[in-house]
Design a protein that fits this description.
Among the domains are: about 35 residues; about 100 residues, no CATH class. About 35% of the residues lie in helices and about 0% in strands. A two-stranded antiparallel ribbon has the order 1-2. A hairpin with a 5-residue loop joins strand 1 and strand 2. The longest helix has 26 residues. It is rod-shaped. The chain starts with 5 loop residues before the first helix and ends in a 14-residue tail after the last helix.
Length: about 290
């Protein structure tokens, strides 16, 4: 049998105690099996017709015979509908006809609760589970302060890139060439490295596709649509697989086209092997040699 909650048990005990006029603790003890049940008060029975008392004999003269009133026969006694408690002989209640009504004792009242004046009692509606004052989270937040965590890392990266550029500027010589001659076109004529990927793309497709369509769709419209296609708000790389995949494809494609244009394009922008025909890129001629 399921256990009855203490709140429901006490409310039932209060209602029963109020109906019977007994203390609440007694009803609670009965419901828990710690005390015998309290008998329900019986309804007051109608007044039973008591047998008419025999009238006292009147004194008669000594010479005259005494006439005694005979006692009523047992069959003439009225039968009571219920057996009421015996009335107290000290205070009989009569109605003028010689019949005595049964005395009913008043129901005991519940003990006062000593409620102060002006205080209204409330009824319990529900029980709300208490919560902690401070908000407790099951796992820590993945956030840090900008200073010093982010700014310190960016400053170290800035110093590392600056040092790398200084080293490359010492190793790689980039002198100015002769003035341009409009009558003599260099062979091969290559664009700077950041545009060499598009120049390599021109050798495979029509200029309208390689020079207009691909840069517009991939470089402008495609990258502007990425935030609307991938709406994942997470900052963890493990949760941004779609965005990482798109950017990886773009970087691999751009790097492949640039490497082919720098190392594998010779005279007339034809395909050649750098270890066989040499390097036809001015910035690498001075310090890269396959001989």
């Amino acid at each position: 049998m399921a256990e009855i909650p203490e709140s429901l048990l006490r409310r039932s005990a209060e209602a029963k105690a109020k109906a019977l006029g007994v203390p609440v603790e007694q009803i609670l003890a009965e419901m828990r099996g710690e005390a015998p049940p309290t008998p329900a008060p019986s309804a007051p029975a109608p007044a039973a017709a008591a047998p008419e008392p025999a009238p006292a004999p009147e004194p008669a003269p000594a010479a005259a015979p005494v006439e005694a009133t005979p006692a009523p026969a047992p069959a003439a006694t009225a039968i009571a509908l219920a057996e009421p408690p015996a009335p107290s002989p000290a205070s009989p209640t009569g109605n003028g006809s010689g019949k005595v009504a049964a005395t009913v004792s008043p129901r005991p009242l519940a003990p006062p609760t000593n409620t102060p004046e002006g205080v209204r009692t409330q009824r319990l509606l529900t029980v709300v589970k208490a919560r902690a004052i401070q908000q407790v989270k099951s796992e820590p937040t993945d956030k840090v302060n900008t200073w010093p965590h982010l700014m310190l890392i960016e400053f170290v990266a800035l110093l590392a890139i600056t040092a790398l550029l200084l080293v490359l500027s010492v190793i790689i010589h980039s002198p100015l060439l002769e003035p341009a001659n409009v009558n003599a076109t260099p062979n091969p004529s290559k664009a700077p490295w950041y545009f060499l990927g598009l120049q390599e793309l021109l050798s495979y497709f029509d200029p309208q596709i390689a020079g207009v369509t691909v840069p517009t769709i991939v470089g402008l419209v495609g990258f502007m649509m990425i935030p609307y296609v991938d709406r994942n708000p997470s900052t963890k790389p493990s949760d941004r697989k779609f965005a990482i995949m798109l950017y990886t494809i773009f970087m691999c494609g751009a790097a492949t086209l640039s490497i082919l244009g720098v190392l594998f394009r010779g005279r007339g922008f034809n395909f050649s092997y750098p270890w066989r025909d040499g390097i036809f890129f001015d910035d690498l001629k001075d310090w890269v040699n396959f001989e």
